[in-house]
Design a protein that fits this description.
342 residues, alpha+beta
Length: 342
């Protein structure tokens, strides 16, 4: 009888322990996790799409200068234009990277905004200041501090928000951007469909080595032979898509001398006629010989050549690989001649 009671007691004890264990397990399993303030901060984005979609004016100030940009309207395809220091087309790649970068910056920590932190993270003397103004004239000012190379992060202060944001470093380096990064790097800022005449001259010759023009809206050669428009425009498109690796917008005196020497005389000349608003406009481009060095510019000892448009002060520096574009000759048009229609 005693043995039976002991056996029952053991069963009850084991059952009780199992019940307690199961209860603890279920309680832990079903318990809703509570996030701390810092955990919420770590998962937050600095900006959201709605804030950025309405931006119509940008201002960037860093060690290389101060630049302002604007656009008319907030449609995604609306182009941006630099208004200062020069009135010129803005690199669409820069704008795209900037907004993409701002849209993905995540906060790591929110720090106290006090004199010590401002000094430690260089926010008392920001490496860059970005001002974003929306279509309602409301501005957000973003001050950028030092870069932490250990964890690839930086520090931000945002107007209208408290604290110092320790964030993942943006994919675009605002403090190191120069004018060359901001200007549209396309040498020929035209639509291939708008071209009505294209002539390529070799040094010292008055006769084009390559010439095409539109006659009654049909592409023809210098001999008035009709050409395959699709294939010809593919060739012209190679020129139109030509991009520079450097842009000299305000050449120094030493650069002016070097450019003048390289352009005396130019190796080639391009005359481009474009239809713009029912009016024909002519652009003349001078192409230089190759060089591996230019004053005040690091070409990394690689061959480059220059292109200058007669009515613009900008000097485009292009890698030597693209020089083969200027080997086009009229003979190459034979294969593009369209078969005569019956």
């Amino acid at each position: 009888m005693l043995h039976k009671k002991k056996w029952l007691s053991n069963i009850v004890l084991v059952a009780f322990l199992l019940l307690v264990g199961a209860t603890a397990f279920l309680s832990d399993l079903l318990k809703t996790p509570v996030k701390t303030h810092n955990e919420f901060i770590e998962q937050s984005l600095v900006f959201n799409n709605k804030e950025l979609e309405t931006i119509t004016h940008l201002s960037l100030k860093n060690k290389s200068g101060e630049y302002t940009f604007e656009r008319v309207g907030t449609d995604p395809g609306t182009p941006w234009h630099m208004t200062s220091p020069k009135d010129i087309s803005t690199s669409s790649l820069f704008i795209e990277k900037l907004f993409s970068s701002l849209n993905t910056i995540k906060t790591k920590k929110l720090l106290i905004d006090d004199p010590a932190n401002n000094s430690n993270f260089s926010l008392d003397k920001p490496t860059a200041i970005l001002t974003l103004t929306d279509d309602g004239q409301k501005s957000i000012i973003l001050s950028v501090g030092i870069m932490n190379t250990i964890d690839n992060s930086t520090y931000l202060k945002i107007s209208g928000k408290t604290g110092i944001y320790h964030v993942e470093a943006p994919s675009i380096s605002l403090e190191n951007i120069t004018l060359a990064d901001l200007i549209e790097s396309n040498v020929f800022d035209v639509d291939v469909k708008a071209i009505t005449s294209f002539k390529l001259f070799k040094q010292g010759s008055n006769t084009p080595q390559f010439e095409v023009h539109k006659k009654d809206n049909v592409w023809v050669s210098a001999e008035e032979k009709a050409l395959d428009a699709t294939r010809l425009e593919d060739i012209l498109d190679d020129f139109i898509k030509l991009k520079s690796s450097h842009v000299i917008e305000e050449p120094s005196d030493s650069q002016k001398k070097a450019v003048q020497k390289l352009m005396s005389p130019p190796t080639h000349l391009i005359k481009l006629e474009v239809m713009a608003e029912d009016k024909k406009e002519e652009y003349i481009y001078q192409i230089s010989d190759a060089t591996k060095s230019l004053p005040d510019l690091d070409l990394k000892d690689e061959g480059h050549f220059l292109i200058i448009e007669n009515h613009a002060p900008i000097i485009y520096v292009i890698k030597k690989d693209a020089q083969n574009l200027f080997e086009l000759k009229n003979d190459s048009l034979k294969s593009l001649e369209s078969a005569p229609k019956n």
